[in-house]
Amino acid sequence: MSDIRIATAEDQILLDKEAKYCSYGDTVHYIEPPRIFSRCEGSYVWDTEDQAYLDLQMWYSAVNFGYANPRLNNALKQQIDTLPQIASQYLHKGKIELSEMIAVDAKNKFGLDGRVHFNVGGSQSIEDSLKVVRNATNGKSLMFAFEGGYHGRTLGASSITSSYRYRRRYGHFGERAQFIPFPYHFRGPKGMTKEEYGSHCVQQFARLFETEYNGVWDPKVGSSEYAAFYVEPIQGTGGYVIPPMNFYRELKHVLDQHGILMVSDEIQMGFYRTGKLWSIEHFDVQPDVIVFGKALTNGLNPLGGIWAREELINPKIFPPGSTHSTFASNPLGTAVGLEMFKMTSEVDYGAMVMAKGKYFLEGLQDLQKRFPIIGDVDGLGLALRCEICGPDGFTPDKATLDYMVEEGMKGDMIVDGQKLGLILDVGGYYKNVITLAPSLEISYPEIDLGLKLLEQLLVRATKR
């Protein structure tokens, strides 16, 4: 185990400037001193001392296709030399073709006609979806969302995000959410299978509609006070919690009975993170709205958007000027998005991701057998979780995971003679879950390397 790392003189100068001139509003320093990075490629980033770190979180799933992906980078470079910029109120080929690609795919998968609306990122696209939902439901501003759910930190998005700390200083702005328990089987009641617990959670939700005195339903006119249920099919910041396969099908049945829309937030889990374009595809339901962002452009451009059913977003019901951003549907972003779709269509990308995810999960399960502090592992595609607990294998242990993250960032682990660091992301209700989102282009030797580095961190954690 190494000593605490000290920032270089050059880095310390930059950190001093950051402390004086940079807002901390969008900054979280997971370690002290924080690393300053200088380059990236594939599954790796390098700091200013040219120390390599294997990244197993890839910018919260924004860089699904690897850092500096040559094909996607080249698409951006080519667009810079042709039509690098134009205001979103004007048309260009990329906007139209990317919208068509997403809408036709949705028609093929869900049997629904729909349209695409772009914006500059995930939270902004959540805001647009709230407008679409409110407009389609005569201005209803109450939503259902999940405990453990995360939808962003703009005013509207934070109102449907379960963490109160994102609202505490700012209050609500129109939207409010009632937060419903997610079928988190590892921490659910004992004695139920995963599928039984999923059904139990749906039944508890359905109970809200049994009588007007539960506060969400007026049986005399058959109307709910709630407009939509915002779901992350696989919880992201909540700890990559994967629900039982029967859960959303049963939940959607209740929603359809009561005229409540389902909005699928695919910002973290979209674009093949789970082995399908949209993670909701695993659950055999038809969403009313899909929100996307992040990996659409592999993190090269802040572009996100929504797909919504034709009935919710056609020009008569959602007319020109309903929402707008100068940089929405910008040609640099749409060019990369189109190239991403072409790239993933040329091979069976879903099968590739599922095979790698199965291999990675088997490695995590092997570590779980050997380290009692791993309470739970699970995964769908390359969205994987590893829950760090106390010696009983259940009590959340945030302190140990924090220690592992700090140790990984020291960059002093040795594997096959190579000195490396390991970048991990922390999530979960108790901040004790390693949420693993490696590059979808990760090689099998790199998966083995990641598992070896995780093993070293677990050894350090148990011996400290």
Key features?
about 475 residues; alpha/beta; Aspartate Aminotransferase, domain 1; Aspartate Aminotransferase, domain 2; 7-stranded mixed β-sheet; 13 helices; globular
Fold and architecture overview:
- The protein has 464 residues and is of the alpha/beta class.
- The chain folds into two domains: 9-68 and 349-463, Aspartate Aminotransferase, domain 1, CATH 3.90.1150; 75-345, Type I PLP-dependent aspartate aminotransferase-like (Major domain) (Aspartate Aminotransferase, domain 2).
- Helices cover 35% and strands 18% of the residues.
- The chain has 13 helices and 18 strands.
- The protein has helices at 9-21, 58-61, 70-80, 93-110, 122-136, 155-159, 194-206, 247-257, 310-313, 331-345, 349-370, 398-408, 444-463, and strands at residues 37-41, 44-47, 52-55, 114-119, 142-146, 176-180, 217-218, 223-224, 226-231, 261-265, 289-292, 304-309, 374-380, 383-388, 413-415, 418-423, 426-427, 433-436.
- It has a seven-stranded mixed beta sheet with strand order 4-12-11-10-9-5-6, with helices on both faces.
- Strand 15 and strand 16 (418-423) form a beta hairpin.
- Helix 3 (70-80) runs antiparallel to helix 10 (331-345).
